[in-house]
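Suppose you are handed a protein chain with no further information: no name, no annotation, nothing but its sequence. What can you learn? This example shows the usual starting point.
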Amino acid sequence: MAKILVAEDDPALAAFLAQALTKQGHAVTKVDDGMGALAALAADRFDLLLADIVIPEPDGVALALKASRDYPAMKIMLMTGYDAERQRAHNLDALVDGVVMKPFNLDEICGAVSTLLKKN
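A reasonable first move is to predict its three-dimensional structure. Written in structure tokens, the prediction is:
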């Protein structure tokens, strides 16, 4: 079981992710913006940050930059539905462990998270 922080401003998608990952045996904390994510990271230890790139300040890219610096052992996966934003994330290859394109289904997101958490 991993502790996962989900930073997603779409309540329906955040609930879907939390439910799917909880059913996989993970402990999930949801926040709806970058500031909430930073507060959660300061208050607890997480194995994975799963963040949308397009969230209120700081956005997912800025959040990933700060999180990778402050919590180097934590894995980071970004989500986006925009090709331009995906390119921004790929420019962070050394810091981000993966990018998942929206829309995704249950098997895709759970598989991506599972694969990432198994990597050393």
